[in-house]
Design goal:
It is a single chain. By secondary structure, this protein is of the alpha/beta class. The chain has two domains: 171 residues, Quinone Oxidoreductase, Chain A, domain 1; 135 residues, Rossmann fold (3-Layer(aba) Sandwich). It is built from ten helices and 16 strands. Strands 3, 5, 6, 7, 8, 15 and 16 form a seven-stranded mixed beta sheet that branches. Strands 11-10-9-12-13-14 form a six-stranded parallel beta sheet. The protein has a three-stranded antiparallel beta sheet with strand order 2-1-4, covered by helices on one side. Helix 6 links the parallel strand 12 and strand 13.
Length: 335
């Protein structure tokens, strides 16, 4: 079977074979796998020279391990990118989001840009009523749900979302559903397809930071919430733009020098700001995300801009990097 790997030469397809299942594992046919923005990042310093990738996965179960009793071959499932163990002290104290023994397919060396893969059975969430391409969006939507949850949006909120990528756009749909007073999206003009969708999904205005600094834009009143999907370097300008008591929910990732941000901590302190890290691992909201996709709370069809077979994985990556036309790129290993 074929699987895609990121190498020093780019993205390559290789023939691989799968080992026998452990008792608590499943083997699945991958129907759809989304390309995440983290897949497009340069690898962190010290990374190995060849890695599998793909963590936004929907598929069909082909085989179950001997101890798996709640799943069966033929079921359509979405995979959690990681799952709480249920056994550590954090899990037993109702703090699953702090689990210290996460179960995820990456630990097994398995990823979704492949025709088949092995995964922990605990990570499989059965679904119905969705195409696989839409079902695989449950992973990034779960991230958006967690991000919005941490921001504590209310009907009087004036919200700034930085970055109109898929997670930022999903967060926009959720914030609108929660009845926020105003929602603004910060985006560079080059992201034209994403900006157009942000407008269709109810953004009150688009803020281009290349034209107007975030702290100089007229939001019609103080900003009290910010959902930051952009790199750490954007945090200082977001802090400057927020009013007193503002809350920042942050998921931006970079490697190397890009991990650092310098803040005026006195200003942060005297404005009584809060910075909350949203890291949706383990994934806690996959059933809710699948429900939102079924109900159209988030319109998955509008979000997907490109579909590619696995044989054209290099083209899929090139399309995903073109922010003028790409919103969400989904690969179908078994079309």
């Amino acid at each position: 079977m074929r699987a895609a790997f990121q190498t020093t030469k780019g993205v390559e397809l290789k023939e691989i074979s799968l080992r026998p299942l452990a008792p608590d594992e499943i083997r699945l046919k991958v129907d759809a796998c989304g390309i995440c923005g983290t897949d497009l990042l340069e690898p962190p310093p010290g990374a190995i020279k060849e890695t599998g990738f793909g963590h936004e996965i929907a598929g069909e179960i082909l085989e179950t391990g001997s101890a798996v009793l709640h799943l069966h071959p033929g079921q359509k499932i979405a995979l959690e990118s990681s799952s709480a163990c249920g056994l550590c002290s954090h899990c037993r104290n109702a703090q699953q989001e702090l689990c210290t023994d996460l179960r995820h397919f990456g630990k097994l060396g398995q990823f979704g840009m492949a025709e088949q893969m092995i995964a922990p059975a605990v990570s499989a969430v059965p679904y119905e009523g969705l195409s696989p391409e839409i079902a695989c969006l449950s992973e990034p939507l779960g991230v958006a749900i967690d991000m919005v949850r941490l921001a504590e949006i209310h009907p009087d909120s004036n919200v700034l979302i930085t970055g109109p990528g898929p997670i930022g756009l999903m967060a926009l749909a959720l914030v609108r559903r929660m009845g926020a007073r105003r929602v603004f999206v910060a985006a560079h003009s080059s992201s034209s397809a994403r900006i157009a969708l942000a407008k269709r999904w109810g953004a009150d205005a688009i803020v281009d930071p290349d034209v107007t600094p975030l702290d100089q834009f007229d939001y019609g009143g103080p900003l009290d919430r910010a959902l930051v999907t952009t790199p750490p370097a954007t945090l200082p300008s977001v802090c400057q733009a927020l009013g007193r008591g503002g809350i920042i929910s942050f998921i931006g990732i970079r490697w190397g020098e890009g991990t650092w941000a310098t803040l005026d901590i006195n200003a942060f302190h005297f404005k009584k700001l809060q910075l909350r890290a949203s890291f949706a691992s383990p994934a806690l909201f996959t059933p809710l995300a699948l429900q939102y996709l079924r109900e159209g709370v988030v319109n998955g069809e509008e979000l997907i801009s490109h579909r590619f077979p696995l044989s054209r994985i290099a083209e899929a990556f090139a399309a995903a990097r073109n922010k003028a036309t790409a919103i969400k790129v989904v690969v179908q290993p078994n079309p």
